[in-house]
Structure formats: structure tokens, C-alpha cells
Amino acid sequence: MSPCDQCHAGCCRSFAVPVTGADIFRIQANTHLGFWDFVCRWADPDGSIALQHAPQFRFSDEPDTPFVICLLTDDSQTVPGTGKCRFLAETKATPDKPFGTASCSIHTSRPGACRAFPAKMTPEGDLAILYDIPASGRPGSHPVYSLCPRPWTPADIDPITQVQDLVVATYEMKFFHHLAGIWNDQPGPWELFPDFLEIVYSNRVRPANEALSQIEAASGPEIEARVA
Ligand code: SF4
Ligand code: SF4
Fold it and tell me: Which residue of 85, 130, 197, 228 is surrounded by the most CB atoms within 10 Å?
């Protein structure tokens, strides 16, 4: 039995969830929601959202603020005054479950960061290791932000599918860092960011004789034209 079974999902309530372009297009395809329905930018001046994992983007409409691209949040229906991921589906509180239970409404298309949690790759990329998860995602705040009811063990992680998910999530975030480098060279306004992603990801499959680096060359003029 996973620690997540019957949990109120404090993780999906506590943390800003960084997304990559791949996450965004997968969720769009599977939910038919638009970019602005579920994506936001979170100001991250101290790096506490990026955590040296997600890239920070700059935008010309607020050039002094680094942002991380994340899922939108909304208000909890079962625990008034608290927040949650906009995709978290809650059940009503019961006497034995004061915060109810909760599940991801986009489980099959959830972001790589959610698939990977609570594991990460070693720096060498050859093994998965578990995070040391704190008691609360927001210490000193509401108890609904408490995290896993018991510690995770390696036996809780599927060594095939979950490690594969982790490898893909790590790769996609690395690619997103590459895109941040391109965007931040000449930042446009936030409102044009979806267009930038569309250009880059629609050019992601190339003829056999073209290298990945040519995405930048191919998309650069179009991006500049849109931002100008
Ligand atoms: S808080 Fe821990 S146990 Fe609960 S849903 Fe999140 S990862 Fe699973
Ligand atoms: S997308 Fe799903 S798994 Fe990820 S934070 Fe939201 S509800 Fe939780």
C-alpha cells in the first residue's frame, strides 16, 4: 500500500509545481484546456521554487523578477482558507478524515515533477534516490499542508515505470533549461510565452541531418518577429 493511498495530498497543496513545455502540451492535449487555464508564472526572487531544478525565466513586462513556470492553484473547497493545485480533486471531510482525501484529476497526464516525487536521480543519473520528506510542506502553517503519513521506502517505488518517469522528467527539465537560455537572451512579454513554446515544440522533431541546436537557429527569427 502506497503512502498516498487515502492521503489528503498535502504535497499537492503545499508546493508550487514547476512544469515544462512538454507537460503543458501533454495536459492541453488530454484536457483540451488552454495555456491560460492552468499555467502561471511564480515570482521566484530567492530561488525557493526553482530549487536549482526548474529554470527561471525573465519577461520584458517585469524584467527585474525571475519567474518559474508553474501550475495554477486555487482555493480548497474542503479546507477553507487554504490552497491547492487546481487539478486536485477533493472529497468531503469525514470524522476520521478531517481533510478528506484527494486525487489528481489529470493523473495520466500529470507533470513530470509530480511523477518523479518523492524521488530524484543521482547526479550521475544512474540511480533514483528518495527525498527526505519533512513533516509539513509549509511548516508553521495549516495542518492540511502536512505531508506523507509514513516515510517512503525504496519498496514503495516501482523500479521500472517510476524510474523511467523520473528519467523522462529529468530530461524534459534539462531541455526546458535550454529553452530558458534562448528566451532569456532576448525576453519577450509573458503574454507571448505560449507562442514561443508553440514554435519551439512544433520544431522539436527534425530531419535526420539536423541537430538539436538548430531549433534555436530555426525558431529565433520567428520569436524575434513576434516579440518585436
Ligand atoms: S503527501 Fe506524500 S503520501 Fe500524501 S499524496 Fe503526497 S506524496 Fe503521497
Ligand atoms: S497535477 Fe495532480 S499530482 Fe500534480 S500537484 Fe496537481 S493534483 Fe497533484
Answer: 85
Q: Is 9 in the pocket of ligand 1 (CB under 6 A)?
A: yes
Substitution site in 1, 2, 4, 13 for ligand 1 pocket (most atoms within 8 Å of beta carbon): 4
Closest CA to 138 of 27, 49, 24, 10: 10
Q: How far apart are CA 114 and CA 111, in angstroms?
A: 5
- Measured between its terminal Cα atoms, the distance across the chain in Å is 54
Q: What is the pLDDT of residues 75-129, one digit of tens each?
A: 999 999 999 999 999 998 899 888 998 999 999 999 999 999 999 999 888 899 9
> In a 3-state reduction of DSSP, which class is residue 174?
helix
Contacts 24+ apart (CB under 8 A), 182-188: 182/216, 182/219, 182/220, 182/223, 183/57, 183/58, 183/223, 184/57, 184/58, 186/223, 186/224, 186/227, 187/57, 187/58, 187/59, 187/60, 187/63, 188/59, 188/60, 188/223, 188/226, 188/227
Per-residue pLDDT, 213? 59
pLDDT at res. 55: 98
- Contact 187/59 with Cβ under 8 angstroms? yes
DSSP state of 154: G
pTM of the model: 0.90
What residues contact residue 151 under an 8 Å CB cut-off, 6+ apart? 3, 133
Helix (H) or strand (E) holding 42: strand 39-43
